[in-house]
User: Fold this.
Amino acid sequence: MSSILKVDEIQNTAGTALVTNNPPCIRGFYLNTGYTTTTSLVTLTNWTEMTGTNGTTYFGFQPVGAAVNVSSGEFTVTQLGVYRVTANIHYNSGDTNSSRWIQLDLRFKPNGGSYGTADLYEQNARSAFGAVSYSNAQRIRYMNFNHANCACKLEAAAENAQVIRGGSNEIDTYIFFEWVAPPVT
Assistant:
């Protein structure tokens, strides 16, 4: 005799989850306004989730699975797990000033902890004087969101003013969250 057992979660007597059915989750956000850097590291805010309505896609993407929340530039997940976090930062010099460096940090904060140290630092970010030049920086990190208070953020600073590109009709600077495994505790 065979039977089928359909459950979403099995718990031990203490109420702790033993097995969880984790569907895929992929969520994307774009920077909806540009930001001009200073020499002080600042969290990028003004993120908008790429969502579709009535089955349509926004910037060619339809979100999948559980929500990812953002408040004041800090991202949290509603489905715990290990996530591949991918960021693309499109930036350019706002004038003819060259910058020897630009700092672009994709940082993670564990539950009860603080944000980690610098993540991405580029030397010789601008080599051309007298003209606006453009560049992209990409960063991929795996982050273990094993508690509701875990978070991540994207920060930027530069020697001279650099424009982190963003806009309501652009997908220049973006961040994606892709669930890849259950959380590691």
In short: Residues 25-181 form a domain with the Jelly Rolls fold (CATH 2.60.120.40). DSSP finds no helices and 15 strands in the chain. The chain has one domain: 25-181. The chain has a mean pLDDT of 82.
